[in-house]
Amino acid sequence: MRPLLAVSTAIDWLNEKVGNICNILVLAACVVSAVNAMIRYAFSYSSNSWLETQWYMFAVIVMFGASYTFKRNEHVRVEILYLMLSERGQLWLDLIGTLVFLIPACLLLSYLSWGMFYNSIIIGEMSNNAGGLLRWPIKFVLPAGFFMVALQGVSEVIKRAAALRGEVTIDAKYERPTQ
């Protein structure tokens, strides 16, 4: 189980770094939005590329922030039944739900969205707006974001399996295995 926990730690580290980038992007999106609005009202000038940059940052925040949120156990869950279960029952529910629903769904969505990205890069798709940006880089965010959530799901399965075997305990706040 130790090698798998090392893989889980590496996945957690990756998603922590991605989450830190998303946190910075929230601030960057606010700054770009504010500056764009000030320039538009002060100088009657606007740029579609800055507006699309805001949209792109928001898409990255949502798609990559999901795996970070999952890692930190701050995602939405129906806790009415969950809280009525014992700690062991919660571990089993997390394990089965992640294996049966989350990982397959995320991998399927990643696979299905890959074609959209691939077609966009092949044709060199651009925005229809004057001064707009390339479309394929942001279309890559969909398959990559779903893959990152599936990858974090693998980490969570490893941690839950280790906890069920009594090898680690799970820190409820940050989902870190503790010895």
What does this structure look like?
- This protein is mainly alpha-helical.
- The protein has 5 helices and 2 strands; from the N terminus they run αααααββ.
- The chain has helices at 2-43, 48-71, 79-82, 87-123, 136-164; strands at 169-170, 177-178.
- It has a two-stranded antiparallel ribbon with strand order 1-2.
- A hairpin with a 6-residue loop joins strand 1 and strand 2.
- The two termini are 13 Å apart.
- The relative contact order is 0.17.
What distinguishing features does this structure have?
mainly alpha; elongated; 179 residues
Which class do the helix and strand fractions yield?
mainly alpha
Strand content: under 5%
Can you tell me the overall shape? Answer: elongated
What's the Cα radius of gyration? Answer: 20 Å
Helical amount among residues, as a percent range?
Answer: over 70%
Specify the biggest β-sheet.
2 strands, antiparallel
Brief write-up:
This protein has 179 residues and is mainly alpha-helical.
Give the helices and strands, then pairings.
Layout: H1 2-43, H2 48-71, H3 79-82, H4 87-123, H5 136-164, E1 169-170, E2 177-178
Antiparallel strand pairs: 1-2
Helix pairs in contact: 1-2, 1-5, 2-5, 4-5
